[in-house]
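A.,

Following up on our hallway conversation. Structure tokens first:
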């Protein structure tokens, strides 16, 4: 109906305006009352737009694997390619895959010290099993009998810091 707006539209406009102002204030943590209000925000109506994580990633995660042949020779390390190049900020269909690798690598890095006394316990770790499954599905040499994988991290191009191996598996039957 065209004509004069009724009071409902005005109330809705005021509520949305207040919601917008509270949301903006929360992003900058401007007022203590906004933080106090957020404590009672059970339905997450006051969003937190964190475009950058509180602890942003400063390393790249790499998954490497190598094979042991039936004759006993060990092949060179091969990296699973995840870094798609300069256009990845515009088109990066493997972004979630890279994030999953990073999360699994971090999980292994944090859980491995707890398994030092009983390394076989690592064989039932879900992060370990996910990466082992992924590595065994990669292309292998025709005479490969075993495979081994490593999770490494690098510190970006131009960094003087060397890559760190954060996890190294045993050889596992393919």
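Then the amino acids I'd put at each of the 174 positions:
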């Amino acid at each position: 109906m065209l004509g004069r707006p009724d009071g409902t539209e005005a109330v809705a406009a005021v509520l949305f305006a207040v919601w917008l102002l509270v949301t903006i204030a929360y992003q900058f943590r401007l007022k203590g009352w906004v933080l106090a209000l957020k404590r009672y925000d059970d339905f997450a109506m006051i969003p937190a737009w964190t475009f950058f994580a509180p602890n942003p990633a400063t390393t790249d995660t790499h998954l490497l694997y190598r094979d042991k042949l039936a004759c006993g020779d060990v092949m060179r390390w091969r990296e699973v390619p995840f870094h798609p190049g300069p256009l990845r900020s515009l088109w990066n269909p493997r972004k979630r895959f890279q994030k999953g690798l990073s999360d699994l690598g971090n999980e292994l890095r944090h859980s491995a010290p707890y398994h030092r006394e009983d390394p076989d316990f690592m064989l039932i770790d879900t992060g370990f099993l996910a990466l082992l499954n992924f590595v065994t599905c990669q292309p292998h040499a025709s005479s490969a009998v075993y495979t081994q994988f490593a999770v490494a991290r690098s510190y970006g191009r131009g960094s003087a810091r060397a890559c760190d191996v954060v996890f190294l598996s045993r050889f596992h039957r393919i």
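The longest strand covers residues 144-154. Curious whether your intuition agrees with the design.

B.
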